[in-house]
Specification:
The chain has 660 residues and is of the alpha+beta class. Helix 8 (441-446) links the parallel strand 21 (432-439) and strand 22 (460-468).
């Protein structure tokens, strides 16, 4: 028995060695001196949409859900744990009342306290509140204290066991509306904390805009953005930031489309509205998903500037989502939609002597935002879209001829709607066409050549939304697995190889809350305390931080490497850092030996190699193992002009060599 086992091991070893003895060796050539085209700084960017609680409950660091009582159910998110009857048969409790003077924030909360021992209301946050030990939190609210009835407002963090883990108080001093603020520190870390508000005294007090932020926000901005999430975006070094979506631009109906003018100015006066994603999926409904617009267009532009990204806003073209109502604004009634586009350009680029430029300046940014792109519609299709695009294009170009307009080819990369849209937009000499694709990993590998035959003199392409699906198409059971990520990398070598045509690209969606998502897969996952990048995130980061400035040809026997022997490749040089950068993707289950013959320029002997790899197609990053699949960098020693490399199975490799 033992001899048989030993024999099998020997035979297995011989077979293993024999296999690798005959493993395919691939030789590639790169002429470092021959630039094919310049790579646009916008080549790899970010797509942000308020889906999966990405804004409220995510990037926007507000911790109170329904802070101004403007949800459809005005007390959603607020609990009343100790409502009691008093001896006068009056009930302590809260009621939502309407004030007429503010149409966008008309509700406030009237609290009646008839219990001398106090009365409390509790806010549950966004699936709880993440607080850290010894961290500081800033609370603000508006109050009108009738006849000085309430002597003190006590504010506490409580943990999941209702234990107090942080406390502060406010003395309400006025019968009229007045702003109050307080700061407090937490005594323990808790992912599912809640905020408890207790009242001392008896009588009536009115409350509104009850708001809570960590002091430690991105750039320490008051009422700002969540620091760890912005850091993940910053680290990608994105060429652009597209906002606010996505289907959220269109709305299920025109009345609930995204209207940028309602997202700027004083935060208190921004009108809360239902998020279109809260009921989109029958098996994944989130009826408490609303938009406060605390993260609005001003904040999007500011974020773009912070992370070094070109802003790319997308606006409604007068068509609601065609998967929902498909409601149309008649052509003769498009003027308000067109004016929104013109006014947005003025908001971003206008001087302080203009109406909208003055608003931007008054909000704290006198410097121009330097807007270069604007999108007309999200992923509309058909003759109705083309007809409306023409009207927008004429109006925008007549006033702002240098603004580049992004048009759309519909929701799919092929088919009747796509073919019609592309043909019509080409006739109109469209500048930049947005293409979307959510397909299988295999599709991404097979379509690395998608843009090889696109007309170099035709419209440029924005690969505006893409993500490999594994394997479901229902957007709620896909995984961020390694096969999806490296298949996207294979496809991205094709985007880079075709930089003459492809000027922008972005993965979608960007973010998802662990407890409150609607769609998968997503590039970045977070909960109330932590965040991590998926394997797909690291693929995007590798390409974006190594995009270079000049495209080079990398060929095998004179032809690009686009999947032959399960290998994909692209090459660039960076004239700023004086580097040659080779990207190689091995989608096979075995190690592959590759030699890159670098011609035309002397290279330093020492370089670096960055590898992203996993042996298991189903591997994912998780909160438990956030960097299970993450880049590993090491020194590379070049001998002569030929770089020899062993590419691990299922890997993405970036080789960087300095030019002398």
């Amino acid at each position: 028995m033992k001899n048989n086992i030993f024999t099998k091991i020997i035979i297995g070893g011989l077979l293993f060695n024999s296999f690798y003895g005959h493993a395919q060796k691939t030789t590639l050539e790169v002429d470092v001196t021959k630039t094919i085209t310049k790579i646009q700084p916008t080549m790899f960017g970010l797509f942000f949409e308020d889906i999966n609680f990405a804004a409220d409950g995510g990037l926007y660091a507000e911790m109170i859900k329904n802070r101004s009582f403007e949800f459809d159910k005005p007390l959603m998110g607020w609990e009343q744990p100790n409502t009691k009857r008093s001896s006068l048969n009056l009930q302590s409790g809260v009621a939502v009342t309407i004030k007429e003077e503010n149409k966008t924030n008309s509700n406030f909360c009237r609290v009646l306290v008839n219990d001398a021992h106090g009365y409390a209301i509790i806010n549950e946050g966004f699936r709880g509140m993440g607080v850290r030990k010894d961290a500081k939190y800033n609370l603000s609210l508006k109050a009108a204290n009738h006849d000085g009835a309430i002597k003190k407002i006590i504010i506490q963090f409580i943990d999941k066991d209702k234990k107090v883990i942080g406390e502060t108080s406010i003395i309400p001093t006025s019968n009229e509306w007045k702003n109050y603020s307080a700061q407090f520190t937490t005594t323990q870390t808790e992912a599912k904390a809640k905020l408890k508000i207790t009242f001392e005294g008896t009588g009536t007090i009115d409350l509104d805009m009850i708001s809570l932020f960590p002091e430690d926000t991105w750039k320490n901005r008051k009422n700002g953005l969540r620091k760890d999430l912005v850091q993940l975006l910053y680290d990608v070094k994105p060429g652009f930031l597209r906002f606010p979506g996505g289907c959220i631009v269109e709305g299920r109906t025109l009345s609930d489309r995204y209207q940028w003018k309602k997202s700027v100015g004083d935060v208190e006066n921004r009108r809360t509205m239902i998020n279109r994603w809260n009921m989109e999926f029958s098996h994944k409904q989130t009826p408490d998903y609303f938009q406060s617009f605390g993260l609005g267009f001003y904040e999007y532009f500011q974020l773009s500037e912070d992370i070094g990204a070109t802003p790319l806003p997308i606006l409604s073209c007068g068509m609601a989502c065609q998967y929902n109502t498909g409601e149309l604004a008649p052509i003769e009634e498009l003027d308000p939609y067109i004016q929104d586009a013109l006014d947005l350009i003025e908001f971003a680029n206008g001087g302080e002597d203009t109406r909208w430029g003055k608003l931007r300046s008054d909000m704290g940014h006198p410097k121009l935002f330097n807007l270069k792109y604007i999108g007309v519609g999200n992923e509309q299709w058909g003759p109705d879209y083309i007809e409306r695009y023409k009207v927008f294009e004429k109006a925008i170009k007549s006033k702002y001829p240098n603004i580049i307009i992004v048009s759309g080819s519909g929701p799919s990369p092929d088919g009747e709607h796509f073919d019609f849209g592309m043909a019509e937009l080409k006739k109109l000499n469209a500048e930049l066409i947005d293409e979307h694709y959510y397909k299988s990993p295999q599709w991404f590998r097979e379509n690395a050549t998608r843009y090889d035959k696109y007309d170099r003199k035709g419209p440029k392409i924005f690969a505006g939304e893409y993500a490999a699906q594994s394997p479901s198409s229902d957007k709620t059971s896909n995984r961020n697995n390694w096969e999806c990520a490296f298949s996207e990398a294979a496809f991205m070598t094709g985007l880079e190889r075709n930089a003459e045509v492809v000027n922008l690209s972005s993965y979608a969606p960007l973010m998802a809350h662990e407890d409150a998502w609607q769609w998968t897969p997503d590039m970045i996952w977070f909960n109330n305390l932590e965040a991590y990048g998926s394997a797909n995130y690291y693929v995007q980061k590798l390409f974006s931080t190594n995009k270079g400035t000049d495209l080079l040809a990398i060929v095998k026997d004179g032809k690009p490497l686009t999947g032959e022997n399960n290998l994909y490749a692209s090459a660039v040089k960076d004239i700023n850092t004086k580097e040659v950068i080779i990207k190689l993707v091995n989608t096979s289950a075995t190690t592959q030996e590759v030699t890159v013959d670098l011609k035309g320029s002397k290279l330093a002997a020492k370089g670096s190699v960055i590898t992203l790899a996993s042996a298991n197609l189903q591997d994912e990053n998780t909160f438990a193992e956030p960097k299970k699949i993450s880049p590993k960098e090491s020194e590379y020693n070049l001998k002569g002009q030929k770089a020899q490399m062993n590419l691990p199975a299922y890997s993405v490799t970036v080789l960087k060599l300095k030019m002398k």
